[in-house]
Amino acid sequence: MSDSQDEVRAYTVRLELVDEPGELLRALHPIADNGGNLLSIFHERGNVTPRGHIPVEVDLEATPERFEGIVAALQDENFNIIQAGAERYSEALTIVLSGHLVESDLSDTLSQIHEGTDATVTDLSLSAPEGTEDVSSARLRLATEEGKADDALAAVREVAAAKDLTVVEPLTAGGEA
Amino acid sequence: MKLALLGAGAVGQSVAELAADYGHRVTALADSSSAVVDADGIDVAAALADKDESGAVGTDAPEAALATEYDVLVEATPTTLDDAQPGFGHVEHALERDRHVVLANKGPVAERYADVRALERESAGEVLFEATVGGAMPVLSTIDDFDPEHISAARGVLNGTANFILSRMAAEGLGYEHVLAEAQDLGVAEADPTFDVEGTDAALKCVIVANVLAQGEREYTLADAEVEGISSIPGSALELAQEDGRTVRLIGEVADGEVRVGPRLVPENAALSVSGTRNIVQLETEHAGRLNISGRGAGGPETASAVLADVGRLPEQ
């Protein structure tokens, strides 16, 4: 990953908005006005925080310099920023798990991976050509914090070993070719 | 040079056949039960015909090959683990006589690297072992040319049998057992494929590379390698990899003091995803980026050409 200041990177900003009309639009202005490219907005209308705020997750692209400007502008407007930055999920890794996935409780496997690693499963594909009672495979895409990919893999190995599953790992760092 | 050949399997036979072509003379050829010896050069064709007919290359005892006159001992007996005998004993014998040794047998340099180097230091003879890693591919001589000091990591596909099975499974959507049986019919896999499909063979090669890269600062053996094979990879795993533009390869990695062999996800169009029995090694060099070496990693004439390249590197005594 390049450290170049000109490189556009993806960021996630979590905000808590006051439940008033126009708040969402008001929050998006500082992003657009400071050169951020909006990718998606997740507005959890039905999921109010204990303080009565509505959590919003905004994915955007910007250069690191512009992103700083965006965060500063949001703070100037008194928005409640819960989390801002690329550091949260900046490494993606793909693995394939094989074995008796269904019998060994796939959803438990996934939640163990999640708990043991701080990694988030962002994509899952399952292939069980012989039916769910036979050997099947699952492809998982995990998102982890930068530099935490090795920890995530170690945790996946541990969970897999306990459930007698085979892990096909990606190559280790530097081996992306 | 005068060559004494120990081992009359596919590699030993090919070395015997090709030696004259490289300007060398074979003064002894031994298999596990017999030997043929002649200081003026044995009749290679006759010895191999005898081997075909009676199962023995000659009428002398195998030990006679060690006692005869030679400049280079070529050790091509089957790889053995742990004490690496009898291969290690053959190396010891030759070095004590101040003769050179060229290994095709991985055992001595994978399991007893420090012992081999210690014997070499006391001897006027040298030990070379290009043929132990990647058949015809010049992996170790390239590492030597670049200087191990300037190479940070090595990784690659180092077992043709496992690679053949994985690439057939991916291409045909067939299961492991089916493709293994096919590979055995084709002679690509042995009747007992354990060494290849469980990753041991690839791991031995990685351990040898690790020893060369460590330059004596640390000794590696098979016990230091983390090894996983491919026999538990179902077709569905390859299918899911393919959907994502990837494939599965049995990859050996030597980096940061670790030796690991196991099935890995590799982008389908990457240099590492060679198909069939082809092998590849990638070296991470300090000043020249990544270097790929690929080619035939096994086979009689292929491995013999690496053996004879080593012989050519040795100084006349």
Model description:
- The complex is a heterodimer of chains A (177) and B (317).
- Chain A has 177 residues and is α+β, with helices and mostly antiparallel strands.
- Chain A has two domains: 77 residues, Alpha-Beta Plaits, CATH 3.30.70.260; 78 residues, Alpha-Beta Plaits, CATH 3.30.70.260.
- Chain A has four helices and eight strands; from the N terminus they run E-H-E-E-H-E-E-H-E-E-H-E.
- Chain A has a four-stranded antiparallel β-sheet with strand order 2-3-1-4. In chain A, strands 6-7-5-8 form a four-stranded antiparallel β-sheet, covered by helices on one side.
- The C terminus of chain A is likely disordered.
- With 317 residues, chain B is α/β, with parallel strands linked by helices.
- Chain B folds into two domains: 148 residues, NAD(P)-binding Rossmann-like Domain (Rossmann fold, 3-Layer(aba) Sandwich), CATH 3.40.50; 157 residues, Dihydrodipicolinate Reductase, domain 2 (2-Layer Sandwich), CATH 3.30.360.
- Chain B is built from 13 helices and twelve strands.
- In chain B, helix 1 packs across helix 13 and helix 8 packs across helix 9.
- At the A-B interface, strand 5, strand 7 and strand 8 of A face helix 12, strand 9 and strand 10 of B.
- Strand 8 of chain A pairs parallel with strand 10 of chain B.
